[in-house]
Amino acid sequence: MSAAGAPAGRTPETATCIPGRIGVVGLGLIGGSFARAWHEAGFEVFAWNRTRDILDLARIDVVDGELTDDVLPTCELVVLTTYPEHSVQWLRDRAHLVSPGALVIDACGVKRTVCDQCWEIAAGRPWTFVGAHPMAGTQHSGYARSRADMFQGAPMVLCPSPDLKDLDRLELLSRLVGLLRPVGFGRFSVTTPEEHDRLIAHTSQLAHVVSNAYVKSPAAQEHRGYSAGSWRDLTRVADLNAPMWTELFLENRDNLVAELELVIGHLSEYRDALQDADAERLERLLQEGTDLKRRADLPHPKEA
Amino acid sequence: MSAAGAPAGRTPETATCIPGRIGVVGLGLIGGSFARAWHEAGFEVFAWNRTRDILDLARIDVVDGELTDDVLPTCELVVLTTYPEHSVQWLRDRAHLVSPGALVIDACGVKRTVCDQCWEIAAGRPWTFVGAHPMAGTQHSGYARSRADMFQGAPMVLCPSPDLKDLDRLELLSRLVGLLRPVGFGRFSVTTPEEHDRLIAHTSQLAHVVSNAYVKSPAAQEHRGYSAGSWRDLTRVADLNAPMWTELFLENRDNLVAELELVIGHLSEYRDALQDADAERLERLLQEGTDLKRRADLPHPKEA
Questions:
Q1: Cβ B239–A266 below 8 Å, yes or no?
Q2: Of A196, B15, B213, B246, which shows the fewest CB atoms inside 10 Å?
Q3: Residues in chain B closer than 8 A to A285 (CB atoms)
Q4: End-to-end CA distance of chain A
Q5: What is the ipTM of this complex?
Q6: A261, A286, A295, A303: best mutation site toward chain B, by most B Cβ within 10 Å?
Q7: CA dist., res. A10 & res. B35, Å (int)
Q8: How many CA atoms does the CB half-sphere of A54 hold within 13 Å?
Q9: What integer best gives the mean pLDDT of chain B?
């Protein structure tokens, strides 16, 4: 139950927090997995959860105690893992309790609205908010499906405030990465909320919408015996948490609408070529997609 | 190299074929995997391939010899695994060489055109053609990627001629299943070419088109560091054999166009709800897809 073995972290001299003590807000799939991973790595983990029963369950073997208003000022890192609007409100209500020198991150799937509001809440306070989005998860939700290895090898996207000076930014990110690495992340990307939201609309949000739309064909109900890996993969994330994704989609609707327009436009091209029985055009469309998939999977120049 | 251990098969008394001797036409991903699986199960396998070098390679450890015009009359089962038009032409050219009592199947992803033509070729001859579609494969192609366990647990769809009388049909299917089971198939479905093509347009063909269209967003080229399982799954089959799928899509274009119209229509509904910022409508659309996915994954009533 001690932070022995955990990196001490570099906290300012004004700090009142205990190095390596983590506060996790929300014990769902993501929050539960964070709590498990840090617990296994030897960190002290305190948690807040809307419902009491899950918190009691987690306290048996994962969580050291409740993240009360008394404990919050002692945490070096606080992770907000509830829905976007709730995460912002939780932080707003307790902004005065966060320790000087502490770091606060979120785990929301959209970054513009969350970062704008949380940076505003943190403005003039002695702690720092960094937008964060762990690129992991499953089609399931809830604490019961959380796993200590959820983030093993996964990418983590970080959005530090543009107001930070270069050196502060570097020191902050290095300290944050030091606290996050024990959770298992395989790589860290640093970007702006705008860039994050543009890319995530394609890599994650569109995937869920397309998958959810895919199963609406009546033939989907007769797939057994006639389907293999491609149907399974295309429809895996069709089963989703509708209220959560509704909130995430609406907070990124400009980007998601643009992605939907693109894919609808491209699908219409194949349909037209098929309707015209134009083999040459159809094969060209398919070859273009094949070439783009292969190019997308080459190491990105930015990785060098 | 003998058929020892292989089921003898029930061949008519007029048969000139050797029980358990298999002819495989085409040593690509599917043909190569069939050859490997039957070879491992103790069957004698003879193969035909367009190019000599792959055949020579396969003869080292998988194939017992070349499927020449001299060997063809001795095969109990012939499997056509090349593209649809080629499979039909290969059979047409050698219809007079197939042994009395022998079974001929194909492995094409479309069944209407292939079955119609092959049943016509078989009409009045002493052997039987059954349409077949193994529901397996990977995004890769070619003999080099073939595997003996490719069909392990996979579904196999069979389309026997509607002209067969009930008892003949039952005996035929039981003999064919006996020859196919050692390859590893986990379940067999018997249906009509029309029903097969309708379902396959959804479960396989649409998946390839959607995946291929998905990667055409410019954001796909920047996915690294911002993507996880959902992007990987949605785009896995985007990398495809364009000439092969062009032929398969065109031979099933009525069904595939209908599936494309459906998914384009559904995607447009999410887009409209997003554009109107209509949370209630968006959540209802997402919940509908979630419910349909869950229902589709329940055991099908027909399975009882």
A1: no
A2: B15
A3: 212
A4: 40
A5: 0.86
A6: A286
A7: 62
A8: 18
A9: 92
Buried residues in B36-71 as b, exposed as e (16+ CB within 10 A): bbbbebebbbbbbbeeeebbebbeeebbbebbeeeb
Q: What is the pLDDT of residues A37-58, one digit of tens each?
A: 999 999 999 999 999 999 999 9
Task: Give the one of B214, B238, B302 whose C-beta lies nearest to A290's C-beta.
Answer: B238
Work out the pLDDT band at A300, boundaries 50, 70, 90. Answer: low
| Domain boundary, last residue among A175, A191, A207 | A191
A224 vs B4, higher pLDDT: A224
How confident is the model over A146-165, as pLDDT tens digits? 999 999 999 999 999 998 88
Task: Note whether A217 contacts B262, CB cutoff 8 Å.
Answer: yes
What is the nearest CA distance from B266 to chain A, expressed in angstroms?
Answer: 6
* pLDDT > 90? residue B57: yes
| CATH code, A217 | 1.10.3660.10
Q: Is A216's CB within 8 Å of B287's CB?
A: no
Question: For residue B208, what are the domain limits?
Answer: 196-299
Does residue A260 contact residue B270 with C-beta atoms inside 8 Å? yes
DSSP single-letter state for residue B297: T
Residue A279 lies in a domain: yes
Under an 8 A CB cutoff, do B204 and A262 touch? Answer: no
Q: With CB atoms and an 8 Å threshold, state whether B224 touches A250.
A: no
Residue pair B208/B245 in contact by the 8 Å Cβ criterion: yes
Residue (of B24, B21, B17) closest to B7 by Cα position: B21
Per residue in A93-113, pLDDT tens?
999 999 999 999 999 999 999
Q: What stretches of chain A adopt beta strand conformation (E)? A: 18-25, 44-48, 65-66, 75-80, 103-106, 128-134, 155-159, 187-190
Q: Which tokens go with A160?
A: 């530090």
